[in-house]
Amino acid sequence: MRLAQEIGLRxxxxxxxxxxxxxxxxxxxxxxxxxxxxxxxxxxxxDLVLLRQSAMSKLFEAVY
Length: 64
Description:
Elements: H1 2-7, H2 9-16, H3 27-39, H4 45-53, H5 56-59
């Protein structure tokens, strides 16, 4: 995650990705959360939900 921060992943995604619905809000935060979840061992959306409901907010700032 430090590498993602250093290379500006969140800003890059915000600049390059757009989804024309309300689901497209904050794409940089969403992608960063996906990357963090994968680094924590998630390999499916169901795993990401479990991580989000438990300790993600304790581990990371700005969890979406």
